Amino acid sequence: MDDSQLDNTMCAVRHNQRLRGIFYGDSPFFFDTPVFLAQLSIAALVTAIMQHFFTPLGQSAFISQVLAGIILGPSFLGGEPEFRDRFFPISSFYTVDTFAYFGVMLFLFIIGVKTDLSLIRKCGKKALAIGISAFSVPLLLNFAIGQIITHSVPLEPSIHRSIQWITSFQALSSSHVIICLLADLKLMNSELGRLAISSSMMSGICSWLWAVMVLTGKQSLHIRKVKTFLLMLLFLGAMVFCALFIFRPTMLWIIRRTNNPRSLKESNVCMIFVFILGSALFGEMMGQHFLFGPIILGVVVPDGPPLGTAILNRLELFVSSIMLPIYFVVTGARIDFSAISMRNFVVIEFLAVCSLIWKVAGVMVPSLYCKMPINDALYLGLILSNQGIIEVLILGRAQTTELIDKQTYSIMVVSILMFTGILAPIVKFSYKPFKRYTTQERMTIQHIKPTSELRILACIHYQEHTPSLINLFEASYPNPSGPICFYVVHLIELAGRSASLLVDHHPRNGIPDPSRTNESEHIINALRFFEHEHRGSATVYPFTSISPHESMHDDVCSLAAEKKVSLVIVLFHRHPVIHIPEGESNAIRAVNTNISLKSPCTVGILVDNGAMTSTGSMLSQRDVCRVGVIFLGGADDREALAFGCRMAKHPNIGLTLIRFLDLDLDGTFSMEMRLDLDIINAFRDDCTKNSHCEYQEVSVKDSVGVIGAIRSIESAFDLILVGRWHDKDSRLLVGLEDWNEFPELGSIGGLFVSLESDSKVSVLVMQQMNEAQDSFVAFETTRWNSFGRVWPLH
C-alpha cells in the first residue's frame, strides 16, 4: 500500500465474485474477502509477536503497534512487489482503511468510557499548575525556536510553511497515553503515578482544545468564511449538549436497571452502538472528523461498573487486538523512509528534542516549587513527555487538512516512536517507587509497647472475607488499656475506568461519607457495627482501592507506611466459601506476594479453613477459643508469639506455645537462638500469671517428626500462628520446601494447606519486616554481649 501508487490510481479492478475454493483452482488472493481476512490476521500476528519481545524491555503496546505497521508498510515488507500485490493490493486499500478507522472510532469511544472526569475536579493546585505548564511552556518556547529557524535556516517551502504547526503539535499530550504508560510501568498506584494522571488530565484538555481550534480554524480559512467557523463551533457545542443532556441520562437510566456487568441487555448495547454511529455521522456532517463524536459520548458514559465495565468487556479485547493493529498498518503505509530528506529530518528532530527539554522543564519547575524531590520531578517530566496514538491521530488529521505534508508526518511519527521508546524504559528500570516504603523504624508487633495503640491494616477482596477478618480483629483483643486502630482496604480490580482510585470512607466531622461504592457498602456496615460494639477500644477506617492487580500492592504498602501500622493482614487466595476462577485466584495470590515482598511492616497471611467464617463472633460461640503458636525459632516466629501474647489477654482465649526442639542440637548458641530464648522466657513468666496460657516442648529429629507432630496437634486448635521464614539449614525442615505448593506460607504454614486433613483450623502465617533486619540483629548482638548475659537452656 504505497501512497504514491494510491495517488496515481484512478480506478482499480475489484474482484467481487465468490471464492469457490482452492480445489476449483481459485486463488484466495484474487478475492476481496480472503485478502481482507489475511490482512487482519497478519497485522494482529505481527503486533502480538512484537509485543511479546518488546514488553520485557519496558516498551508500551504503542511501540509494538507502530513497529508492526512500519514492518508491513512500504519501507519494509510492503515495498516488496510480491508481498504487496498478494496481501496488500491497491484494490483492498479502501476496505481496510474504512475498517481501520471504524476500529479507531470504537477505540476512542472506549478511551472516553475509561476517562474519569471527576479527576479534574479532585486534582489540586499542584496538578493544575504542572498540567498547564507541561502544555504551555513547550508550546511557547518551541514556537519561538521555530520562528528563529525560519529566519536563519534555509528550508524547503513545505517545511517553511508548516513549521509553526510542527512546533505546536510537538507540544501536545494525552491523558490516555500517560495512563496506559503508567499501567505498563505498574506505576498507577504510586504517588508519582497519581500526580501524573491528574496533571495529564489538565495538559490533555489543553492539548485537545488547541487541536480542535487549530484543525477547525484551518478548515474555515481554507474556504475563507469566518461565519462557517462560528457555525462549526456552534454545532460542536450542540453535540456536547446532546451528549450531556440526552445520551448521559439514557446511560444513567440503563444503569438503574442493570445490577451487574453481565446483566446488561443486548438491546441496550445496540442502543449504545446506534448513538456512537449517529455521533460519528453528525461530526462528519458538521465538518469535524467522524472520530470526534464517539469520544465525547464515551466521556459522558459513567465509568466503572456496571455499564462502563460491561461495555469494555464486550469491546476492548477485540478492538485493541484485532481492529487497532490494522490501523497502524494503514499508518505505516504513509511512512516512507526513502522519501525523507536529511535536512528536514534534522530540523524536525531538533525541534522535537527542544520540545522534550521544554516539557521536562515545564514539569520540573512547578514541581520543585511545590517542594517535590528533584528525582521525582525529573521522572514526572519524563513520564508526561511521552506521546502515543492520540497524537498520531491528530497528526493524521493535520496531514488531511494540509497543515503538514506527508514527509513531515512521517518524520513526526518516527520522532514519537523514538522518544517514547527511549523514555519509557528509562523510567521503568530506574524509578523504584517501593523505596518510599522503607523505614528505619521497627514497625512490628514485637517492638511496640503493650499499652500502646496497635495499628493493623487488613485487605479484603470479597464480602465473604469480612467475617474472617472481624473474628481475627476480635481475637486481637482491643480494650481500653490496649486500643487497636484497624485500617481496612477493600481491593477491587480496575475495570471500566482508566485511572486507579483510593477512596477514604471515614466520615469527616460526623458527616456521612457520600463516596461509598456499592461493592464496599456491606463491608463498611459490618465494620461500623464492630466499631460500635468495641467503642473506646477499637477504631475502624475503611478504604476502597480500585486498581490493577499488578500494582494493587502499592496502595496497601503506601497506606501502611503513611499510617505507621505494625501488621498488614491479607487473606489466602483460597477460601472455603468463595469459588473464583483460577486466573483471578492467581492474581490475588500475586498481590499477596507483592505485599509480602514490599511491605514496610509485618505481614500476616490468614488461611481460613472454616473456623473463622461464621458470621457471628467466634469468641462468643464457645467458652474458650484455642490458639496455638508453633515455634521453631527466628524473627518471624518471635513476631507470631508477640501477636499471640496480645491475644492471650482476651478472657476467652487459651494460648498454647508449642516449641519444637532438635534432639541433635550441638549446644552452641547463635544470636538468633538467644533472642528466641529471651521471648520464650518472658512468655513462661506470663504463664504463671495467666491460667489460659500453656507452654509445651516437642522434641523431634527430622522433618518427618515435624509433620507427625503437626498432624497430632492441628485438630486441637481453632487458630494457629506460625512464622514464615526459619533457619534454612535446620535439620527439622530438610525436604519440606521441595514439595511445598505455597512458598508464601513458608515450610510450616504450607503443611496446614498441603496435608490432607478434615481439620478446620485456621492459620496465620507471620512475616516480620525485612528492612534493616541484619543491622537490627547486629545491634541486639552488641547489646546482649555488652551485658555479658548467660542464657540458660530450657
In words, what does this structure look like?
The protein has three domains: 3-13 and 28-430, Na+/H+ antiporter like fold, CATH 1.20.1530; 432-608, HUPs (Rossmann fold), CATH 3.40.50; 622-794, Rossmann fold, CATH 3.40.50.620. 56% of the residues lie in helices and 10% in strands. It has helices at residues 3-7, 32-54, 61-72, 81-87, 93-114, 118-122, 125-152, 157-170, 175-185, 191-223, 226-256, 266-285, 292-300, 307-333, 342-369, 374-384, 389-400, 406-430, 466-475, 521-533, 552-563, 582-598, 635-648, 671-687, 703-713, 746-754, 773-787, and strands spanning 454-460, 484-493, 501-504, 538-547, 567-571, 602-607, 625-631, 653-662, 693-700, 719-723, 762-767. It has an eleven-stranded mixed β-sheet, with helices on both faces. Residues 627-769 form the Cation/H(+) antiporter C-terminal domain. Belongs to the monovalent cation:proton antiporter 2 (CPA2) transporter (TC 2.A.37) family. CHX (TC 2.A.37.4) subfamily. It is a multi-pass membrane protein. Its main location: membrane.
Q: Provide the helix percentage.
A: 55-70%
The number of distinct structural domains comes to: 3
Span from first to last CA?
84 Å
Structural class by sheet pairing and helices: alpha/beta
Number of strands: 11
Shape descriptor: elongated
- Uncertain regions: pLDDT < 50 for 5+ in a row? 509-516, 771-794
**Rounded radius of gyration (Å):** 32 Å
CATH hierarchy class name of the largest domain? Mainly Alpha
Q: Using the coordinates shown, work out and report the CATH topology of the largest domain.
A: Na+/H+ antiporter like fold
Mean pLDDT across every amino acid position: 79
CATH architecture of the largest domain: Up-down Bundle
Largest sheet: 11 strands, mixed
Order of strands across the widest beta sheet? 3-4-2-1-5-6-11-10-7-8-9
